[in-house]
């Protein structure tokens, strides 16, 4: 059962990788039964985007993370950081708003973690110079509460929804345009 879960998740992201090169609408759902599974899902997810050749990518990859408080957005980014061997501790940059982590051995040079929870209006995000951040192909950017700055996100933005099903169960829905 456990390995079947990994098999399915991994093959879903293999498709995602193909999808990254040949744009098609894709929506996939994975059920996480605990924190460790969310971490594993994050690692499969990032493995298949990180190996993608930078060739063809003219902008940063922006991924909006959406879902209620405590749904698992930050834990997912922690899993991404772990998979990318980020040494620094990743925590929710709620007060910091954004933080970057240098990456080794990947087509991206920086992992960015943004948290828009505190923003009351989209305009407040203008000081962050997001356009420049999003336009640089060296950047892999995860935006918690990205729905709060919907109009500032690029149309190519990927979205991951986190739904709380039970105490430790989360439905994670990936939307890849
Ligand atoms: N399957 C699961 N996946 C992820 N987190 C889980 C899971 N089961 C339980 N949890 C718990 O849910 C919480 C998720 O917290 P997290 O900070 O990631 O949420 P968040 O979506 O970032 O919330 P916020 O909007 O406040 O930033 C953690 O305390 C974690 O231990
Ligand atoms: Mg968070």
Which small-molecule species are bound to the chains here? adenosine-5'-triphosphate, magnesium ion
- CATH architecture descriptor: 3-Layer(aba) Sandwich
Main pleated-sheet profile: 7 strands, mixed
Mean pLDDT score, rounded?
85
The number of helical elements comes to 4
What structural category characterises the helix and strand content?
A: alpha/beta
3D architecture notes:
The protein has a single domain, classed as Rossmann fold (3-Layer(aba) Sandwich). The longest helix is centred in the first third of the chain and has 20 residues, at 2-21. It starts with a helix and ends with a strand. It has helices spanning 2-21, 35-50, 73-83, 130-135; strands spanning 26-32, 61-67, 98-102, 110-115, 139-144, 158-166, 169-176. α1 (2-21) runs parallel beside α2 and α2 crosses α3. The mean pLDDT is 85. With 177 residues, it is an alpha/beta fold. Bound molecules: adenosine-5'-triphosphate and magnesium ion. Adenosine-5'-triphosphate binds next to α2 and α3.
């Amino acid at each position: 059962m456990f390995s079947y879960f990994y098999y399915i998740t991994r093959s879903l992201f293999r498709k995602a990788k193909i999808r990254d090169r040949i744009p098609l609408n894709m929506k996939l759902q994975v059920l996480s039964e605990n924190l460790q599974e969310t971490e594993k899902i994050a690692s499969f997810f990032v493995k298949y985007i990180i190996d993608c050749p930078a060739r063809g990518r003219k902008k940063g990859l922006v991924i909006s993370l959406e879902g209620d408080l405590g749904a698992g957005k930050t834990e997912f980014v922690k899993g991404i950081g772990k998979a990318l061997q980020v040494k620094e501790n990743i925590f929710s940059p709620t007060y910091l708003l954004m933080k970057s982590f240098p990456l080794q051995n990947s087509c991206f040079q920086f992992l960015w973690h943004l948290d828009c929870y505190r923003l009351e209006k989209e305009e407040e995000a203008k000081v962050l110079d997001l356009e420049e951040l999003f336009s640089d192909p060296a950047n892999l950017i995860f935006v918690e509460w990205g729905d709060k700055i919907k109009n500032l996100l690029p149309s190519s933005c990927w979205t991951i929804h986190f739904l709380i099903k039970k105490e430790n169960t989360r439905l994670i829905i990936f939307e890849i345009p």
